[in-house]
Amino acid sequence: MDPIFQLPPNSPLTVAISEDWDLLPLRVPAGWNVIYNELSARRLPDGRVEANDSEDLYWARTAQPPWLSEQEVAEQGGLRAREINIDAGWYGGCGFRVVVLDPDWHHERASYTTSDLGEFVATLEGWMRIITQRGELPKS
Fold it and tell me: Which of helix, strand or coil describes residue 125?
């Protein structure tokens, strides 16, 4: 399976992608540190989109709110007191995969696989929002 897609003409991703390899626009909510981002794509001459096919496309982890002290974070507990990681990549046999780790690969809390670029980006953005804004872990 190749990472080549036909996006809907009215998709925000369609407008953002050019003929040159470039990072996809990604809405990262406050509360995340992006460690690695190679989520890039380009438009092919026939109008389809080719995405980077690396297993290591994106990695981010939650960041402690700077206005809270260590003691306040510990008192609040919940997700703000823990380091949550989100990892994403392309796996040739099944498509894009997004994984939530709490805090590491031995503690996988949610996973989603899709062969649709738009669904992948929406899931990645949505899960980051659920974790930092709602203080919840997403459901697989």
Answer: helix
Instruction: State pTM to two decimals.
Output: 0.91
CB 108 within 8 A of CB 99: yes
Environment class of residue 57 by beta-carbon count within 10 Å: exposed (0-12), middle (13-18) or buried (19+)? buried
Q: Listing from the earlier edge strand, what are the strands of the sheet with 22-23? A: 4-5, 49-51, 40-43, 22-23
pLDDT at 110: 97
CB-CB contact of 3 with 46 (8 Å): no
Show the tokens assigned to 48: 């389809």
Q: Count, in order, helices (H) and strands (E) of the chain.
A: 3, 9
Tokens of 83: 């380091």
Q: What is the pLDDT of residue 77?
A: 74
Q: Which two tokens stand for residue 24?
A: 């996809």
> CA torsion sign, 95 to 100 to 104 to 108?
negative
